[in-house]
Every structure is written in C-alpha cells, then in structure tokens.
Amino acid sequence: MTVRRGRRDTGQAFPLYIVAVGGLLFLALAFFAVGQAAATRNGAQTAADAAALAAGQKYRDLLGKGFLDAIRDGDDTGDGGGTSWEDLLNGRGMPSEAACDNAEWFAGRNDASVTACTPDSWPTSFAVTIRTRNTVGDSVIPGTENKHASAEAKAVVAPRCTLDPAPPDEGKGGGKHGTEGKRGKEGGSSKGGKDDEGGKGKGDKPAPIGITCDGKQWTLDPEDLHDLPDAADLFAVRLAH
Questions:
Q1: DSSP readout, 28-88?
Q2: What is the C-alpha separation between 69 and 48, in angstroms, rounded?
Q3: For helices 2-73 and 97-109, angle between their N-to-C axes, nearest 10 degrees
Q4: Among the four residues 30, 54, 103, 218, which has the most C-beta atoms within 10 Å?
Q5: pTM
Q6: Cis geometry, peptide bond prior to residue 142 (ω within 30 degrees of 0)
Q7: Residue whose C-alpha is closest to residue 73's, from 179, 178, 221, 222
Q8: Beta carbons within 8 Å of 98's beta carbon, 6+ residues apart
Q9: With contact defined as beta carbons under 8 Å apart, do 237 and 60 qualify?
Q10: Burial class (CB in 10 A: 0-12, 13-18, 19+), 3
Q11: Per-residue pLDDT reduced to its tens digit, 215-227
C-alpha cells in the first residue's frame, strides 16, 4: 500500500514540474528579450553620441579654416558671408549644414539614421536625435520585431582662445587693424594724393593678431603665417550631459 501511494504522489507532482519548467523557460526568454532591448538602446545611444560629436568636429574644422582664411586675407571675413574673424574665434558664424551631413554619415556607420539635427548659435552646439535601422528582433514579448530604438545627444563647440590686448599704437593708420600709413609732409597726401583722408597707403598692412589658447600664445601675422594653430587648438568639442 505504501508503494502504491508513492507512485500516485509522483504522478500528481509531474504536471507541477512541467508548469514550473515552462515558467522558468518563459522567464529566461523574457529576460533575453529585455537584454536585446537594452543592447539595442545602448547601441542607439552610442550612435547618437558619435553623430553629435561628428557634427561638432566638422563645425570646429569649418570654424578653424574660416578664422585662418580671414586672417590670411587681411580682412574681417572668412566665410564670404560677412562674419568677422572675431565671431569665428568665438565659435560662431559658419553654416551648419555640413556639420549635420557629417552627423548623418557617422550615424549610418552605426546602423542608424539622424531624425533631427538642431544647431544652437551660442554656445554653438548640435542636438542630434537618431533612430536605429535594426529592430529589437523577435522575442516572447509581442511587438519587439518592429520596435526601433531612439536616442539623443548634444555636442558643444567651445572656444579655447581669447584675443590678446592690442598694442598701444594699433589702428593709427587706415583700416581697423592696419598700421599707420605713410603720409606726405605737413599731413598732406603722398604720391598723387592717395592718402588725403588717412586711407591705406603703401606702408599700410594688417597688424599681427595675438591670441592665447589654453595658456599657449600665438601671434598670427597675415603677411607671415607659419606655425599656425590647428582647429583643435582653437576649439574644444565635448558632449553635453
């Protein structure tokens, strides 16, 4: 009788084992689905960070080139649009389309697409939103096969440099940054009267510009440009949290 009762108890417990194993299997698959979703979300954030930094770095390069072009040309503009080199040195004034295009390219390398790229003029920054091209995938949780991940990131382009004080004799000649032009005797005009109003004469030239970038000094002479700072010397690019 004892043997028969034990067999009957065993038979009654077997369905409970099946239910318990099935429940554990479902939980394992559910945890796996959660892990898939977390991995997709982390990948999206990585893509967003990379895209935002790519936009900021492209804009930094454009600023650096525009600033040095303005100094090299000896005028106040470096982008052809009337932006002064002082604005460029302060990190603003260049078109942002190329920066957002660069963000899109880097997002594509991370299997994502840029859904928004919003520049802000001051401090210059790029807020980028991306959407993954891949979905979470099939799982025991309904709908994950069509679920994409989205993420946002913001990169800031911060100036590293400040303009050094101008020498005491700067600006005596013609032009904003020129040196004093040669004038004829008694304040009259030199050859042909070309300097009657203190305009640029043959002796006029743009004065060197001094800047200090994170403690390092640079002297930029438009007539003798050498040992120039890189864009990375002029501007820092960082993620904003």
A1: HHHHHHHHHHHHHHHHHHHHHHHHHHHHHHHHHHHHHHHHHHHHHHTSS-SSSSS--HHHH
A2: 32
A3: 150
A4: 103
A5: 0.68
A6: no
A7: 222
A8: 58, 59, 62
A9: yes
A10: exposed
A11: 999 888 888 777 7
Task: Return the structure tokens found at 205.
Answer: 């030239």
pLDDT tens column, 7-50: 555 556 667 667 666 666 656 655 555 566 666 688 889 999 99
List residues bridging with 178 in a β-sheet.
206
**128, 212 Cβ separation under 8 angstroms:** no
Distance CA 106, CA 235 (A): 21
Contact residues for 23 (Cβ-Cβ < 8 A; gap 6+): none
Four-point Cα dihedral 190, 191, 197, 202, nearest 10: -80
